[in-house]
Write a structure and sequence with these properties.
The protein has 526 residues and is mainly beta. The chain is 11% helix and 52% strand. The chain contains seven helices and 23 strands. It has a 16-stranded antiparallel barrel with strand order 2-5-6-8-9-10-11-12-13-14-15-18-19-20-21-23. Strands 3-4 form a two-stranded antiparallel ribbon. A hairpin with a 6-residue loop joins strand 19 and strand 20. The chain is globular.
């Protein structure tokens, strides 16, 4: 056993290596790496995932052992449906405790993270949308109505007031996992909740504290995950199957989608695929499908695009992962319903139109020990790299980009023109010693949105627009693990964005902004 491997086992109780992506893909074990390689909160979530996978695998093994192939299923001895088959430990892991009366085992993890940062942005890109008055036929005959879509972009200089000082906040979470191991699979419950708060300044320069919320609800903003799982079936608030494991190794994210959403999902795992066993030992795979809440994936503006209230059809998502201890490859796709009511809202004579948007992602992660590549010069250093590429039409939230584009533009007649876009992210993390690491993330996105030319009236010039939005980000990080679950980090980044439009056959002036930012944080994992 190498020195690095021994260090993993010693510190597993505090924080477990996050990038056990191979375990997520169905592989049996992960490449050993010191636990300081990863974030405390994310690591404990991954540990819950891994525990459930191992328990499910153990349950399947017991079923096979108790049901020989030569014995007909109908003659098998009757068994209790939910029989507890072992103590509250997992391969000698003693962090699980017995929950009285209900026969479940439980474990609690979490972390407290405090951060202090400064954005140096003095201006930002702003967008204004409207519908130009045009003569259209409605229920009252020919008349003026807000009809032809138009979008403008400009620099907002007031941003400097919101970034005039430093900001501080906390990203702190508690994770609770409970499971009951049975001969028919593991029943598990997982809750991941916490406090997400930071200080912000308004355009008057006044400082206030904001809490994370969704749809105006603080309780929803406080819960990141809350689900129940039996075997491969999972129901509740859970990570979208479209997402890869994370959005880069730095504290500030790259442009990649990672979202938790109410969903129903099912995962089928394939263990030990016997393909090139000498080259790809312990190769595994998983195939997953889900129906997910579409409302969090909507990017409308309310004028050129407007979704109806209510959920409509869910987003249908599929995922394929193939992995071994050192790598994982991820492919996912999603279908997103578009049902527009914006044109109908401004001209009731117009019908409501609907169509579907789509998104696809290909991603992967590879982990290695440098001594295996360059010999003794590598010492006890480890490395891992992540890549992801995403494309979409009509579902821009899946790009993981800022809210700088909309899913589609509806014409005055209700015809839907879907926006399109792509995003790319690359991230590398280097573990120099068991207690010190550095990482870098680079990401970029681009989106296109527009409308076909339309006449405002008889004999007028046709108006239309096409706007491209692009962005790039580079973030560097250094983190030191001080022992007993304490970590200290320093991070710096640079962000660039640009909007460029075309109107009436001529190009508009491009507008671009860029700014650096710095951040320092400390984290206590438990």
């Amino acid at each position: 056993m190498s020195k690095g491997q021994g260090y993993v086992k010693k510190r597993t109780k505090i924080v477990v290596s996050f990038a056990c992506a191979a375990g997520l893909a169905g592989a049996s074990t992960a490449l050993a790496q010191p636990a300081s390689f990863d974030k405390g909160v994310d690591a404990s979530i991954l540990e819950a995932e891994r525990a459930i996978q191992e328990l499910n695998a153990a349950s399947k093994t017991r079923v096979k052992e108790k049901r020989p192939a030569s014995q007909p299923i109908a003659k098998a001895a009757p068994r209790p449906a939910f029989k507890m088959t072992g103590p509250c430990n997992l391969n000698g892991n003693t962090q699980f405790f017995q929950i009285p009366y209900i026969g479940f085992c439980g474990a609690v993890h979490g972390s407290f993270t405090g951060f202090l940062g400064k954005d140096f942005a003095t201006e930002d890109i702003a967008f204004t949308t409207q519908r130009l008055p045009a003569y259209r036929y409605g229920w009252n005959g020919l008349g003026l109505s807000a009809a032809v879509p138009m979008l403008y972009y400009w620099k907002n200089p007031l941003v400097s007031k919101t970034t005039s000082g430093a900001y501080t906040g906390t990203y702190s979470m508690v994770n609770f996992l409970a499971f009951r191991n049975t001969d028919y699979g593991t029943i598990s419950v997982f809750i991941n909740a916490g406090l997400f708060a930071r200080t912000v300044k308004n355009y008057e320069g006044e400082t206030r504290i904001t809490l994370n919320q969704l749809y105006g609800n603080y309780w929803r903003g406080a819960f990141d995950q809350a689900w129940v799982q039996w075997g491969g079936l999972r129901v509740g608030l859970q990570p979208s199957l479209f997402s890869f494991s994370r959005t880069g190794y730095t504290f500030m994210p790259g442009y990649a989608s990672y979202m938790t959403t109410p969903a129903v999902s099912y995962t089928h795992r394939i263990e030990n695929i016997n393909v090139l066993p000498g080259l790809l030992p312990r190769l595994g795979a998983s195939i997953s499908v889900s129906a997910e809440d579409p409302t969090l994936r909507r990017y409308p503006d309310g004028v050129l695009s407007r979704y109806p209230t209510g959920m409509g059809y869910p987003d249908f998502v599929a995922q394929l992962r193939v992995g071994a201890p050192a790598f994982v490859v991820h492919a996912s796709g999603a279908m997103h319903e578009i049902r527009d009511v914006s044109a109908n809202a401004y001209n009731s004579f117009m019908p409501k139109y609907s169509t579907w948007g789509w998104a696809a992602q290909l991603a992967g992660e590879y982990r290695w020990k440098w001594s295996g590549l360059i010999g003794p010069l590598g010492g006890e250093m480890y490395g891992k790299a992540m890549l992801s590429a995403t494309a979409t039409q009509g579902a821009l939230s899946y790009l993981g980009m800022p809210y700088m584009s909309i899913d589609y533009v509806s014409s005055s007649t209700g015809t839907i023109q879907r926006s399109s876009g792509q995003s790319f992210m690359a991230s590398y993390e280097h573990l120099w010693t068991p207690v010190f690491k550095t990482s870098i993330t680079g990401a970029a996105f681009q989106s296109y949105m527009g409308s076909a030319p339309e006449f405002l009236g008889f004999g007028n010039v046709a108006f239309g627009f096409n706007t491209q939005v692009r962005g790039q980000r580079v973030v560097g990080n250094a983190e030191y693990w001080a022992g007993e679950g304490w970590a200290f980090g320093l991070e710096g980044g640079w962000t660039w964005s640009q909007a460029n439009g075309q109107y009436l056959g001529g190009r508009g002036l491009p507008v671009a902004v860029n700014f650096p930012n710095v951040l320092t944080y400390m984290r206590k994992a438990f």
